[in-house]
Amino acid sequence: MEQIQIIDSKNHVGETVKIGAWVANKRSSGKIAFLQLRDGTAYFQGVVVKSEVPEEVFQLAKGLNQETSVMITGEIREDTRSKFGYEIGITGIEVIGESNEYPITPKEHGTDFLMDHRHLWLRSSKQHAVMQVRNEIIRATYEFFNTNGFVKIDPPILTGSAPEGTTELFHTNYFDEEAYLSQSGQLYMEAAAMAFGKVFSFGPTFRAEKSKTRRHLIEFWMIEPEMAFMHQEDSLEVQEKYVAFLVQNVLDNCDHALDILERDKELLKKYTKLPFPRISYDDAVELLKKNGFDDIEWGDDFGSPHETFIANSFEQPVFILNYPKAIKPFYMKPHPTRDDVVICADMIAPEGYGEIIGGSERATDYEFLLEQIRQHGLDEKEYSWYLDLRKYGSVPHSGFGLGLERTVTWLSGIEHVRESIPFPRLLNRLYP
Ligand code: 4AD
Ligand code: MG
């Protein structure tokens, strides 16, 4: 007898098969028991009819506790009443692992309780759906960059240099030296772009940020493309094509997950339309001031209410261009005619999800960059390898970083970034 997965039921209608599963839920009457079964690939219903099975099978079915693992035998049939479309008529049940007093019951639980039980919470259908969206974004990311001539390069996690400022670093011992956990692979990706042309990385990054917002994780995954011989305008085109591609693939391949998440698909479709709108930082500040934000002055960084207002002024993700030099990292290319702004852009997601991409054209001039490193209080010895890139065939180049979890949160339509990663590292949360 063949052992199958629930997701493949459609290929086995009328066959008697085995399925390894967990009992997600159950209800029964005197004559019939319905088991809600899940095996990680999908959920479907198992039906046990008292008059059609040995009495001990019926009694066993009626007594199964939530999350008991079982090996089910039965016949796959069509089930027009369920959205999944198939069910199993159970003839045999073997208990594999008992489950007593499973802590996550169908009733409502508080977030702290659920986060404490994250190792079990992942089994629930909503969390499962979010992880399917995450998996699709990961898959589509590789497809996009592989089919567009990019080479995957892995920057180190243990590093001695800090691209994004020194205040949010995780310090660690590196034998008799001090090292940090990478907050961005960018500087290494610039070196890689000079070796391979178009490159991308995809890995974990760390920020010791003491912020407790719905957008911040301590450990998150970032996709960082870097492109040689490319100016910022062309980089913006890569960015919008990439994000639209992610949205389209989630729509194409996560239909059921989006249903479970009750995500508005018509809204998502709008995000596949290119190009995305662009607004300068200067105009964004004016827009905010005109609309009653008197807490913002030219030169300030945007907070989430500002980003949300700007995003709501457009129907698609929006690029905010050319921020003040003083609030951006040392490596950004200076504006050709203004010395107060740099050539950069953040992409702000719609619906209040905030910044999903930060990117820029990179400074190419050796003397300028050395001066920036000094002005930012960085140790130029630690950056001498990076400065080498400007000594030996420096070329215009641009790149960006997309935050995986913010993108998952947005496309899933969930409230908080902590549900977009299997085991979130948050302020004051290292377990499970
Ligand atoms: O804007 P950031 O800091 O940019 C960089 O690190 C550049 N070096 C990237 C590059 O040009 N190669 O971070 C990029 C993105 C943000 O737009 C956001 O989506 C995400 O990373 N991000 C976070 N996501 C979750 N939690 C945090 N604490 C995050 N910080 C940044
Ligand atoms: Mg940023």
From TrEMBL:
Reactions mediated catalytically: tRNA(Asn) + L-asparagine + ATP = L-asparaginyl-tRNA(Asn) + AMP + diphosphate + H(+)
Recorded GO MF terms: asparagine-tRNA ligase activity
Keywords, alphabetical: Aminoacyl-tRNA synthetase, ATP-binding, Cytoplasm, Ligase, Nucleotide-binding, Protein biosynthesis
Similarity-based family: Belongs to the class-II aminoacyl-tRNA synthetase family.
Domain Aminoacyl-transfer RNA synthetases class-II family profile: 133-432
Location of this chain's protein in the cell: Cytoplasm
Enzyme class: ligase
Quaternary state and interactors: Homodimer.
Record bears the keyword Phosphoprotein: no
Superkingdom per UniProt: Bacteria
EC number: 6.1.1.22
Record SUPFAM superfamilies: Class II aaRS and biotin synthetases (SSF55681), Nucleic acid-binding proteins (SSF50249)
PANTHER family xrefs: ASPARAGINE--TRNA LIGASE, MITOCHONDRIAL-RELATED, ASPARTYL/LYSYL-TRNA SYNTHETASE
Keyword Nucleotide-binding in annotation: yes
Protein name per UniProt: Asparagine--tRNA ligase
Coiled coil: none
